[in-house]
Amino acid sequence: MSTRLAPPARQGMTLAEVDTPALLLDLDAFERNLDRLDQSLVDTRIRVRPHAKSHKCPEIALRQMARGAIGVCCQKVSEAEAMVEGGVMNVLVSNEVVGPSKLARLAGLAKRARVSVCVDNEQNIGDLDNAARVAGTKIDVLIEVNVGANRCGVEPGEPCVPLAQRIAATKHLRFAGLHAYQGAAQHARTPIERRAAIARAVQLVQTTIEALQAHGLKPEIITGAGTGTYPLEAASGVYNEIQPGSYIFMDADYNRNLGDDGKPVRNFEQSLYVWATVMSHATAERAVVDAGLKALSVDSGMPLVADLPGVEFLKASDEHGVLKVRQGSRLTVGDKIRLVPGHCDPTVNLYDWIVGVRGDKVESVWPVTARGAFY
After folding, report:
1. Which of the pair, 347 or 43, is modelled with greater confidence?
2. Are 139 and 91 in contact (CB under 8 A)?
3. Is 348 within 8 Å of 23 (Cβ atoms)?
4. 41-250 adopts what CATH topology?
5. Cys-Cys with 175: which of 65, 165, 167, 311 at CB 3.0–4.6 Å?
6. Measured between alpha carbons, how far is 151 from 164 in angstroms, rounded to an integer?
């Protein structure tokens, strides 16, 4: 984990006193997002396992679990270690874990918490079983199925059967189910595209379940889904667990998804911002803020400038964000503004602290414990 600098804010500060760049969380919007996810699943039996790669913060994970989440997902062993160290006792590494060191750490972590992991390769199953044997633990294992993301994952149907049989034959692993995440569908812009992608994914999962059942293998957990599509998986009758992550924060890219009315979907509110200071205003058309590539992820496009409709974030360099200022916009050197990140997950990973604000006051400062935990 990273060595932390002092936080940019203290509890009780006004927003104006918070140093920049800082990662701000509007706590009222954040809590409404938690409520909205719960409300959207009323009268279903869908388990919620939020993805902690979005926030990397045990404080947030514990708040999600206090509202009924069964645990969290992580993508890396080090993320899982950070969650368990922070008191989160049920973690799925929704990824493949390869290499003796990582496998030993994963198996050791299973002594302290309920830990599960994904596989898509028979050799990896043997290595994982050996690591669990050495550690004296037993690990739940899910087969990752490629349902359209074309990343990790074995092909659906019969190709999953030998892997499930191999897991079931081990002494230190338990075949727990299927991981079937259609990541490419999360940012499909139209509802028609999203529905078609998830309908296809559901069909592939159902085919896989039937192939396994024909060989006497029962996948208990069918997990996947993200913020952009989880209502579809939840309504499918096939999935029984969902993994939304970004719903607590949202970002500029998710906010471009459209609903049936052709307007941006607003199921969840923007709660995450980067707080930045205007450091230069050398011309009437150009201003510069102190948040650039080291403060904002731009893989999904430039951030949006909140609250100032006449101002556009034009480009970023290491330490600078250049704003295009339209005539009539009022900005002066020293002003502080909110920026909506293009992509929340990698933006959070740039910060040691999340500054929680309610109205104009800092209420909490939470460490991003798993920042840099990519090993």
Report:
1. 347
2. no
3. yes
4. TIM Barrel (3.20.20)
5. 167
6. 20
